[in-house]
Amino acid sequence: MHRADSRPSRRAFIGVAGAVATTGLTAGCESPAARPNRPPSPASGTQVSPTGRHQAGITLPQPAQPNLLALVADLGADVAPGPLLAELGQAIRALVTGTDPRLLGLPPGDLTVTVGVGPRLVRMAGASLPGAVDLPRFSRERITPRARGGDLLIQICAGDALLLPVVAAALLAQAGDRLHERWRQSARRGANVPVDDNLTAPRNPLGFIDGIVGPHTSAEQQRDLWLAGPPAVAGGTLAVLRHMELDLSRFAALSVPEQEAVFGRRRVSGVPLSGGPVASGPDLGAKTPDGRYLVPADAHVRRANPVVVGTGLMLRRSYSTDDPAPGLLFISFQNDLRTFTATLAHMDTSDALLRFTTTTASATFLILPGFDRQHPLGSQLFA
To answer: Tell me, what's the pLDDT at 279?
Structure first.
């Protein structure tokens, strides 16, 4: 993870760190089978509208672009969030539509920019609003003060990795002295593997297909992803951002059956150890003839199962990193922060997968509702 010990040059060209694939290691969700009904996927390079009820970069495009840059920053003292967010929204429209000269001639293609505000800013608008609560601390964390929390998240995704630092530089230049960067992380997703009708998922750096289960249908998204109210946040969602280092060599030293016991799925196919289709959740009650659970008690798919935890589904996006060490940038979207916190608390007690991870950055953000020319970015929250 690139941490900003001093304020960086806004014109610096930050290279994109990438590795192989993606995973939902720290807060994955497993659920009973749900047949996804996804919207059509725009072709690679097809423009994704930056305006609408929801911000782009969450459920659209599908599948998600392979390259991501997450930038976490703080607002300067006495900076009003409303005008700054409105300006950023205007700049995002110009960048996504290719009319901003700061793109340096690069075609925007499927570029998306998604903006969220941290708990401090949400509390300025209302202490009882969704997103006003900071993330608690969990075990297996090694996080510096600069890498915990933050006022603003700018998530930049694109098929062309060259766009990421160029767009980040343009948005930071737009903000000027009103925004102070905390840290940034470039990352990438691996190739998508078909796992069911209209559903694909990438392999993670540990070799397993991941991100299979989530709120894929419109009904599931309305129930578990999008905020329905109050009006200031309706159409938004809550994001959790976590960066982890991975102990790849120790995991690779396990036998394949041992690795499969960690996840609760077959490595090659993604089928649950209890059997059934790849896209289905595991049968947690299934046992061998001698009475052993087919899905071990500490397997990730059992410990993170939303039925067991008692939470809704979360939309998980995880990206592989390799700076300064092999790792993952994990982002989850949900309309109730407890979906994440209760899941990770349940995993913290005995999830076998967490033995191979150390979290080095952590934050939560209210992803603002969508915007257009009549309703600037952030205007519902910061009138």
So the answer is: 86
